[in-house]
């Protein structure tokens, strides 16, 4: 640490480096956004492309990817969105993406592991609150496959994708001559931090907690080995998406008591595209942040221990 009043920033003062376009400059970057055809992945891909990045988006279904690439294509022609149909929940799909990109790019500046799944779950609040009734609901209506499928997609696949692209991420500095190697951003959730099951979604909350732990471990191991590859995790609260029942009407800037009461969010609204894009850029552009988990939830976690729990 140093005395910031004397030394910090002297080398950049007056150079324009502190202007917003330079603070978050991703022009010329190569980015990968898994699950980038819908929801938060599409917001991420659109924001990157709008600011001059070449963005590869992946997903299991080609039609949403092609629609996304068309609808979110930047108007100025600087950035691009390129769809790749592949299933990131298995090694074959991950290798397909890597081979596709390796044939076209020499490096990757950011890998955003965004794909995920939220499966139906037993409802702990909708049965008689006795040991017998709870045992029957939560044991008989859940399966090991349900737990393992969610973990494979939401956590294990992030591990395999991260290591598959390690050489291309490292090449951003060694080959692309960027100031740093590529970085990784994983999609967590406030569900991986809260101590509640949110009405019974034990599996999802547990594997999102595992995703956060995985991100910390990757960040630590890469830092110890001097790879210069940062790993962070973003933990959203309630946003409109394919995995959420929340409609776009609640994602504006108008707050409502209805949303505040039903969804337990003090700010009285869901998050929107601008909120999320600002969050993403703050993590991928800051070269001094690794191993961080950034919560963006309108204050939900701050009060989730009080009042209505969702």
From TrEMBL:
Look up keyword Nucleotide-binding and say if it applies.
no
Q: Which InterPro entries match?
A: NAD(P)-bd_dom_sf, SDR_fam, Sec_Metab_Biosynth_SDR
* Alphabetical UniProt keywords: NADP, Oxidoreductase
Output one GO MF annotation: oxidoreductase activity
Question: Is Isomerase one of the keywords?
Answer: no
Which Pfam family, an example, fits this chain?
Answer: adh_short
In which family does this protein belong, per the annotation? Belongs to the short-chain dehydrogenases/reductases (SDR) family.
Listed name of the protein: Short-chain dehydrogenase
């Amino acid at each position: 640490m140093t005395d910031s009043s004397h030394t910090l920033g002297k080398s950049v003062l007056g150079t324009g480096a502190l202007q917003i376009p330079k603070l978050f400059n991703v022009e010329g970057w190569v980015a990968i956004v898994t699950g980038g055809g819908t929801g938060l992945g599409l917001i991420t891909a659109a924001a990157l492309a709008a600011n001059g990045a070449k963005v590869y988006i992946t997903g299991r279904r080609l039609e949403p990817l092609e629609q996304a690439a068309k609808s979110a294509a930047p108007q100025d022609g600087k950035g691009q969105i390129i769809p790749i149909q592949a299933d990131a929940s298995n090694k074959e799909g991950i290798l397909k993406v890597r081979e596709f990109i390796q044939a076209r790019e020499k490096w990757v500046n950011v890998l955003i592991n965004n794909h995920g799944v939220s499966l139906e779950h037993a409802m702990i609040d909708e049965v008689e609150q006795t040991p017998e009734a709870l045992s029957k609901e939560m044991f008989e209506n859940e399966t090991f496959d349900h737990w393992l499928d969610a973990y494979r997609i939401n956590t294990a696949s992030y591990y395999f994708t991260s290591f598959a692209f390690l050489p291309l991420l490292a090449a951003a500095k060694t080959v692309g001559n960027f100031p740093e190697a590529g970085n990784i951003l994983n999609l967590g959730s406030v569900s991986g931090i809260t101590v509640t099951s949110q009405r019974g979604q034990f599996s999802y909350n547990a594997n999102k907690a595992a995703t956060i732990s995985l991100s910390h471990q990757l960040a630590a191991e890469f830092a110890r080995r001097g790879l210069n590859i940062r790993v962070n995790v973003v933990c959203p609260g309630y946003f409109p998406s394919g995995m959420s029942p929340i409609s776009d009407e609640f994602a504006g800037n108008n707050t409502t008591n209805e949303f505040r009461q039903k969804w337990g969010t003090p700010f009285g609204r869901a998050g929107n595209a601008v909120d999320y894009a600002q969050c993403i850029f703050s993590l991928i552009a800051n070269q001094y942040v690794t191993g961080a988990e950034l919560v963006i939830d309108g204050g939900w976690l701050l009060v989730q221990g009080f009042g209505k729990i969702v």
